[in-house]
Each structure stands twice: as structure tokens, then as C-alpha cells.
Amino acid sequence: MIRHIIAAIATLLALWAMYYMYQLDVEANRFGEIQKLLERTKMEVKVEKKEPTQVVQAASAPSADKEAKKKEDELQKKLKALRERAGNAMAFKVSPLYKQKCSSCHGVNGEGIIGPRLIGKSSDYVLKALEDFKSGKRKNYVMYGLLSKMDESQLKALADEIGTFEAKLKAQGN
Ligand code: HEC
């Protein structure tokens, strides 16, 4: 009898160990996926860095026809958009308030991530949006929750700052 019980316990332990190993495997796979994703982002950044030489080559190569030039331009545009999206490429400095409270969703320079792009929106427009979110006239839980703890002068300061984003970006040659 006791032998049977021990055998049963041993079997259970073995099954549990197998399950545990399986879970570890799943985790490892997930980790691998993340690494692959990171790898891909790195590659994109590398391509970006190469672009100036590519431009020079395309421009100086005598055989470069219009088609190639057009493709090159398109690539440039895409890369620019990508660069704007890559949150780590900060083109200009922002206030600590914006950085802390807004950049995680709207991007370090307002380029937009989860939240919409703010570059190019006027101070007046932004202030109105913020006031409407805060009052609940414009319904959005995320923005409401954030702004409910801010006072009018902070909203104004943020709106004024965001209104300057486009000019600042242009000044950086983007
Ligand atoms: C957790 C994510 C998140 C954070 C943090 C956040 N926002 Fe938003 N924001 C959003 C989302 C999502 C929307 C879109 C809501 C909608 O249109 O209903 C939005 C909309 C806006 C809009 C309206 C844009 C438009 O095109 O009408 C403005 C302006 C804005 N946010 C400014 C800010 C400011 C300023 C801060 C920092 C105080 C901030 N947001 C922080 C997610 C966020």
C-alpha cells in the first residue's frame, strides 16, 4: 500500500516537473520573440544611419534614373516617419511636465504613439481639447484621469508648449 502511495506521489512530482519545464520553455520562447523584435528595431536604426551615403551614391551615380530617385525619396519619407515614431530620437527638449505626463503616449516630441500626434496643433486647439477632456465634455478616461489632477495654469503651459512643437521640429531640420 505505502509503495503504491509513494509511486503515485513520484508520478505526480514527475508530471509537475514536466509541466514546470514546459512553462520555462514557453517563457524562453517568449523571451526569444522579444529579442528578435529588438534585433529588428536595431536593424532599422542601422538602415537609417546608412541613408546619407545612400543618398550621395544615388545622386552621384550617373545611371540613377528618375524611377530610382523616386523610390529613394519614398524610402526617405518612410525613414523619416519611422524616426519620428522611434520615441528615443528626441529632436528638441521638452518641459519636465510634458516629459513626465504626456510623452509616454504622445511621444517625446508629440509625434504620437498611443495618443494622437500633437505636432502642428495650435496652442488654442490643444488648450480647448485639454479643457474639454477635463470637464468631461470630450470623453476620454485616460486624458480625463490625467488632467483632473492638473490646474488651469498647467494646462495652459502645456498647450502653449505643444503649440511650439512644429516650429521647434522645423528648426531642427526635420
Ligand atoms: C496614457 C496615454 C496618454 C497620456 C499619458 C496622455 N494622453 Fe493625450 N491622448 C491620449 C489618447 C488615447 C487621446 C485620444 C483621445 C480622443 O481623441 O478621444 C489623447 C488626446 C489628446 C489630445 C487631443 C488631440 C486631438 O487631436 O484632438 C491632446 C491635446 C492631448 N491628448 C494632450 C495630452 C497632454 C498635454 C498630455 C499630458 C498632460 C497627455 N495628452 C497625456 C492618450 C494619452
Automatic annotation (TrEMBL):
Swiss-Prot/TrEMBL keywords: Electron transport, Heme, Iron, Metal-binding, Transport
Superkingdom: Bacteria
Origin organism lineage: Bacteria, Pseudomonadati, Campylobacterota, Epsilonproteobacteria, Campylobacterales
Occurrences of domain Cytochrome c (ranges): 83-166
Gene3D superfamilies, sorted: Cytochrome c-like domain (1.10.760.10)
Protein name: Cytochrome c domain-containing protein
Organism listed in the record: Nitratifractor salsuginis (strain DSM 16511 / JCM 12458 / E9I37-1)
The keyword Kinase is assigned to this record: no
GO MF annotation list: electron transfer activity; heme binding; metal ion binding
